[in-house]
Amino acid sequence: MKDALGTVQSVLVLGGGSDLALATCRRLAPHANTIVLAARKPETLDAPMHELRALGAQRVEAVAFDATDYGAHDAFVQRVFGEYGDFDVVLLAFGVLGDQSETERDARAARDTIESNFVGAVSVGVPIITRLREQGHGTVVVLSSVAGERARRSNFIYGASKAGLDAFYQGFGDALVGSGVNVMIVRPGFVHTKMTAGLKAAPLATTPDKVAAAIVEGLRSGREVVWVPGVLRWVMSTLRHMPRAVFRRLPL
Amino acid sequence: MVPDARHGRDALDAFDGTTDALLSGWGRTAPTRATVWAPRRSEDVAARLASFQGRGVVARGLGRSYGDAAQNAGGTVVLATGLDRILELDVQKGQLTAEAGVSLDTLLRVLVPLGWFPMVVPGTRYVTLGGAVASDIHGKFRHGTFSDYVSRLSLVSPSRGAITVGPDEDPDVFWATAGGMGLTGVITEVTMQLQPIETPRMLVDTQRATDVDDCMARMMADDGKYQYSVAWIDCVARGKHLGRSVLTRGNHATLEDLPPTERAAPRVYSPRSIVRAPNWVPGGVLNHASVRAFNELWFRKAPKARHGELQGITPFFFPLDGVTAWNRIYGPRGFLQYQYVVPYGAEHIVRETLERLSKDRCASFLAVLKRFEHGNAGPLSFAMPGWTLALDIAATRPGLVELLDGLDELVVGAGGRVYLTKDSRLRGELVPAMYPELARWRARRDALDPGHLLHSDLDRRLALSGR
Questions:
Q1: pLDDT tens, residue by residue, B252-285
Q2: Domain locations in chain B?
Q3: Contact between B33 and A3 using a beta-carbon 8 Å cutoff
Q4: DSSP string across B232-270
Q5: CATH architecture under which domain B82-197 falls
Q6: Topology (CATH) of B201-426
Q7: Is A5 within 8 Å of B395 when comparing Cβ atoms?
Q8: Is pLDDT at B356 greater than 80 in this prediction?
Q9: Residues of A in contact with B53 (CB under 8 A)
Q10: Which residues pair with B165 in a beta bridge?
């Protein structure tokens, strides 16, 4: 159970190999009883599992999960909840960045980004939230992005997938009021991770550990939306209202 | 929703009274959703208890536990406040039997005019008898806890159905239930011993203590003169004022203590709430500055020493009940109460606690120090001979996790324990050290509930029942 100060005991991570997910788990591990990392290749997670156990997590498991194998999602959710019990937090951390220039020309590549980041998160999110409603408590932490706040010409397909994800979980969060289940949407700016390796960092770039710290603080304070860094809330609020003729000329 | 009393108790047959609700404790932290069932008759509890499979069931009274003891996420919560009848009162012997949902408030309104008073009352009169037993509550009376004066309980447990137990009849079940946090069954009736009182007034002595050592020394020196004793501590004060406090101690006033003109008056008891907290208060109202200002005022307002002041029952025992829903003042993110007991000889732990709070500039709006002369046979009962310190702290305070985890270590190291009824953040792994008889309690509990039907969020968080 999550306690009065937002400390959580059990975490399910979808996209368990992601840098942001592992940074978050590192911060939760000292008080955690159970951390389940779900990833497409769970066999690659030995090192992080070992690390999380060393940090104090009592039980760390890795299970197979494929974001785009929609037909398997329901069974996957029943199995992890059945095997590991209640989850205080479910972290949706899977996703792909996609190559913008390729996705603009290749429908299949474009669809892959949308399917992983958005359709996959919807497909697995519905049965997860059903289980959380049954258990009467829990928080879904959704890794969205500032890219979903306003489409940028340099990465609008990724942005579109995150916009869909963000809108879906905002609405779901409102629908869940009174159910004991909460949704927390995390909107980081540019984060230095293996997903963004080789890309030119945007202004206000941050690190996985800073995102993790913001997630843990958000869980403590029961936030519904978390921007990382916090100032992006105001930056994006400004950019959102900027005329398109100006916005598309910005070097973003 | 509640059936119309004019149709008689038969109407209760048709009453289901089930609804979904988001429940939290008095601290308003970590709410969870449960199906709330409000029975109106004890028999219904026995008839339906076994039907709450899945995520199980736990009883709830007036929701004054600070944490998650009376929540059951995804399961059923039996709201016992509908079991509200006083069943029997022997005005010669001072023995009372009532259903478990009767509140102390209701009881006092009946008992005080008749010249009787419970042996143990806590800091609020809005607790039910069932909750008082399940939490084995205590108050300013240091010679015992609530369950010490309970002679019989009716309990509905999964394995044995409706049973009657007491310290002389099935004592193992009785003591597993006293302080058992509702995890042995649903308490439906309570029989308790009362004390006679001559007047509805208290004869109170108030003193200021210059620091925490002075306070504890005064309590040890002459608590013997008083039935009730409590110290309010200014935990914002630092340096040589560390733990400066106001000691309030008293006895029930006898007729002779009253001015002659009042002696012939009837025993009137009509407590009123003075104000109601607003429905919404922003977070951060109770911050270091406001608490400091309040504490300064409160300390200076107290007389250096005043003897023989006549006070009413309400201001003496239940000062906070004057503000309805005062828990809202902490804002939407709520607060917690951290209460521990350490044995005599571990006075330095109390001092160390105050030093850490003061160093961390952690403002506790309400810091209260009391004593116990002895514990009891309840394996999960909180009381033990020693000092008990209770601190109310806003849940928003940065660094609170580390501060309280550190205090837990001190308390365990000194052979003390944290009070489960107040708890909302303890680490489960410390419970066996704090409650050395936990294994014995689990064995008795499992015999009463082998299928693990009884569940609460507290149980899930701390793995109290060992699941």
A1: 999 999 998 888 877 888 887 778 888 888 887 8
A2: 82-197, 201-426
A3: no
A4: EE-TT--GGGTT-EEEEEEEEPPGGGS-HHHHTS-----
A5: 2-Layer Sandwich (3.30)
A6: Alpha-Beta Plaits (3.30.70)
A7: yes
A8: yes
A9: none
A10: B153
